[in-house]
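Final report, closing paragraph on structural work. Over the funding period we assembled a curated collection of sequence-structure pairs, and we close with a single example.
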Amino acid sequence: MGFVGRFLFLLLLVVTTPALGQLPSQDILALLAFKKGITHDPAGFVTDSWNDESIDFNGCPASWNGVVCNGASVAGVVLDGHRISGVADLSVFANLTMLVKLSMANNNLSGSLPSNVASLKSLKFLDISNNRFSGPIPDDIGSLRSLQNMSLAGNNFSGPLPDSIDGLASLQSLDVSGNALSGPLPAALKGLRSMVALNLSYNAFTKGIPAGLGLLVNLQSVDLSWNQLDGGVDWKFLIESTVTHVDFSGNLLTSTTPKELKFLADISETVVYLNLSNNKLTGSLIDGVELSTFGRLKVLDLSSNELSGDLPGFNYVYDLEVLRLANNGFTGFVPSGLLKGDSLVLNQLDLSANNLTGHINMITSTTLQILNLSSNALFGDLPLLAGSCTVLDLSNNQFRGNLSVFTKWSNDLEYVDLSQNNLTGSMPDVSSQFLRLNYLNLSHNSLADTIPEAVVLYPKLTVLDLSSNQFSGPIPANLLSSSMLHELYIQDNMLTGGVSFPGSLSKNLSLEVLDISGNHFSGSLPDDVVSLSGLRVLDISSNNFSGALPATVTKLVALTALDISTNQFTGPLPDALPDTLQSLNASYNDLSGVVPVNLRKFPESSFHPGNSRLEYPASSSGSGNSHSGSAGGKSLSTGAKIGLVAASIVLLVILILIAIVCHYKRISRQFPSSEKVSDKNLHRATKDIESMKRKDNKGSSEVSADDLGAPRKGSTSEAPSQEEKLSGVGAFSPSKGSRFSWSPDSGEAYGQEGLARLDVRSPDRLAGELHFLDETITLTPEELSRAPAEVLGRSSHGTSYRATLENGVFLTVKWLREGVARPKREFTK
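Its predicted structure, as stored:
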């Protein structure tokens, strides 16, 4: 290379070096450090994009997915909704000093919110919602003074909401819903003067609603629902604030003074949505209030409280669209104004589970679409008109009469529930009605006659429940062939005949639940049951089906519950019922053979009683006994169990007796009888006792030679207790570890054998008269008083000791208290 070439190369190097020097390495390194924590990126959104080869010369990787640049600096990281998994180390972003937006919502990221997040002084938008982040919210969060929107919702954050939150002076939206935050709500919330939307729902916050929320003049939406907040509702906030949406539902809030219970008359004109449901509100909250306009309120939900009293008239309700007062104790009539055309915009009305009474003549509202009056005490005939309702629930009332009004109800109906009433007559055979109906429940009435063929022609019907009526006759042809029907409940009627399914060439994939139990169906179960290949639940119990269970039932691969009990099925159970089966009842049939291996996961009660010829192998039973379906087999099994228990008890008693005999033989070998004690020793003992007698003391101690023997190992001698000294024990020292106790023989009368009265006066020496049951024994009181002894027992008459003599021989001594005489047989016990 010549001089000119070298000069051009150096010039190029000088020109390009400043550009390379502009690389913000700390931003790049931070992003690469974050990438290391990613363990799963199904679309390769980060792992395939963030690499060194795609770095721009201006210093910011603008070509990296989700990275937003502002000049040479990273201004945004947006990774929302890419199903990315891993540990997100957010602390690595602390060096991104120009970062304005950090958003990685709707992924599967874990980690914590680090305290150095406070370094992001430029951050305005933080959204890490719907991930698996955990730990506390750091106090340093209050240093993000530029932050305008923060969402930590749908994670596992715990602990309190820090008081430092009032440092977020620019914050307009805060969402920490769906976490495990706890403790009282901080009073610092009232310092968020820029707040527009506040969502703290679905946590475990306690105490009351903090005062001062009304000071947030920009606040439009506040959601504190489903926490553990208690205390009274802040009616002043509802009356004076400029908020539009308020949700305090799912807490423990209570009503306060009766005067404040009339709040609806003075509620703020700005409030359009108010939900106080699922609290502890009591009293007649809206009784007697003139609710002519409701202000601008569009949604009012007071359901699931303890409210009572009559409902107001609701006349001329111009703005209310949704009214839910369900599950309270309201009484009186259903306000007619809510069912008429006067309610110009009302489209949802739920007054269910109250104590409302009266008739419902007609529903003429042209806007009302959802009407739920279930679980009240309404009576009379069904309403003549159903207005424009799409959902009509009048179940669990006292309506009577027939279903002839069906022909006048609107074709707009999609959901009809008239169950648990007193309806009679037949079901109209009208095919032009209910063109949009997808749910029809007429169960638990007294409807009779046959199920009309027209029901097959309802084009969108997916759920049909006619159970617990008095329908008779066969199932309508092609009902089980409907391509739209998902669930069919016709159990507990009086239906008869056989059951036919679609042919094998016309499979019905839509029917998932079929319950025809409790009828009078007969014949065999057709092989074509396989055509219902989408079945999850099949219940044909309590009928008169007979024959073998078809093998094709094994091809119902989606089946989770099967009940064929209380029929007359015979033959074996199919070998290959699907492994998806979670519930099985085949009892009360006449099945035979052996329960297939894959069905032995179910208890024996799934097969017996009944099925006397069906064997349930012992290996499948937790008890380890052989189980047979026959009555005799089961009886024998029970008898065998009883015999086994009895034999075990007898064997145990025999073993105990053998142990006792062995024990006493061992004792007799260790301790020689009195006949084996030398005459020399006995003579010496007698002489010593005689020399120790004191004529001025009269006591009585009985010495027995029956217990003479070798000394006990481990016996000790200790000073007598104060109680023993006072009772005249003398030099006898009971063993410290003695576990013997004694109860007086209160039933014994004093004897007639002329024993001398005791006169024991010495507390530290044995004194009084000695009586020997064995006349060959002669011991002196002195020798006996020196002998260590242990207490065998005490009674109200005296104390029993076992004394050890100097020669190693021990004997039993019974000492009687002064003034007590006992027969000689007492000492032999």
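The first strand starts at residue 38 and ends at 40. DSSP finds eight helices and 53 strands in the chain. We thank the funder for supporting this effort.
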